[in-house]
Specification:
The chain is an alpha/beta fold. The protein has helices at 6-16, 19-22, 50-62, 78-81, 106-112, 184-194, 208-213, 223-233, 249-265, and strands spanning 32-33, 41-44, 68-73, 96-101, 129-134, 141-143, 146-153, 159-166, 169-174, 199-203, 237-241, 274-277. The strands form two sheets. Strands 6-7-8-9-10-11-12 form a seven-stranded mixed beta sheet, covered by helices on one side. Helix 6 packs across helix 8 and helix 8 (223-233) packs parallel to helix 9. The chain binds zinc ion (ZN) (2 copies). One zinc ion binds at residues 75, 77, 155, 176.
């Protein structure tokens, strides 16, 4: 690499600066792709990150990827569906879009945000074939060869967590979920749902201090609760997710470091839980 080039500058920044300084976590709202299905895309939530996924998916489809999309919607709050009007593949007449959720009003929510008052292109102008499937809690179903199960989570208008398993490897997507530590029955259900997971993508919007003092009943959880649940469930890796928008990059980095330290302190002979912190564009292999 020649010194003085942008690539050399980027390499220097990566090796000499901490993440919050050189990289930044980004600000896209919830949208996570899981690459596990036979010939189909699998995407959790349709937050603002969906626009960029759509661009990437179109590129992969041009190279031969099948044009079937399985979406898994945790709930219909705006930060989880706002990317959909900007999802290019919805205009592809050769695409099939299957929306899985625990909410019977998923289609309503997507249509409503494309009403003329909010967006110039109505839902009926989209050209992809759509299917909306409502799933019951605790009843496994197949999507592209992956077995998927829902759990109901405590959140305004309810939300769903998703358990994905294939060939003995499992991922949990559990965001917008407030864990009530005084409700042991509910927490036992989450321990069972997270059991032995290779990766838990978990709502850790607040620090524990915020959760117990200011933001109880705001429908989100803390980094501490997430570690405790993952330990109890014997999960292998935890991704801190759904960062509080008012936190700076430095705040998020500090919370990540504190979570890693907390995990070490309370590990008590268990195998280590690998704690990572989500950022826009993060890729993880299991
Ligand atoms: Zn929400
Ligand atoms: Zn949210």
């Amino acid at each position: 690499m020649t010194s003085g080039t942008p690539a050399a500058a980027a390499a220097f920044a990566r090796s000499h600066l901490d993440f919050a300084t050189y990289g930044a976590y980004g600000g896209a709202t919830s949208c996570v792709e899981i690459e596990a299905a036979d010939g189909a895309f699998m995407v959790c939530d349709m937050g603002s990150g969906l626009r960029e996924f759509g661009v990437d998916a179109a590129r992969r489809c041009a190279a031969g990827h099948p044009r079937t999309y399985h979406f898994f919607l945790s709930h219909m709050h705006w930060d989880h569906i706002m990317g959909f009007p900007f999802f290019g593949p919805a205009f592809d007449p050769g695409a099939t879009i299957i929306v899985h959720s625990g909410h019977p009003d998923a289609e309503d929510a997507l249509r409503r945000q494309q009403d003329e008052i909010s967006f110039p292109v109505p839902f009926d102008w989209l050209r992809a074939k759509f299917e909306f499937v409502v799933h019951a809690v605790g009843e496994p179903f197949d999507a592209g060869g992956v077995t998927v199960t829902l759990i109901r989570q405590h959140h305004s208008h309810d939300s769903s967590g998703f358990h994905f398993v294939r060939d003995g490897r499992s991922v949990i997507y559990s965001t917008d979920s407030e864990h009530k530590l005084d409700n042991m029955e509910s927490e036992a259900a989450f321990e069972a749902f997270f059991a032995g997971a290779d990766l838990v993508i978990c709502d850790t919007m607040y620090s524990l201090g915020d959760t117990v003092s200011l933001k109880q009943d705001w429908g989100h959880s803390s980094n501490i609760v997430a570690v405790d649940l993952c330990h109890a469930a014997g999960a292998r890796r935890l991704a801190l997710f759904h960062h509080e928008p008012s936190y700076s990059d430095a705040d998020i980095q500090r919370m990540h470091a504190e979570t890693v330290r907390y995990e070490e302190l309370v590990r008590e002979g268990r195998p280590a839980l690998d704690v990572i912190c989500a950022y826009d564009g993060l890729e993880i292999s299991l």
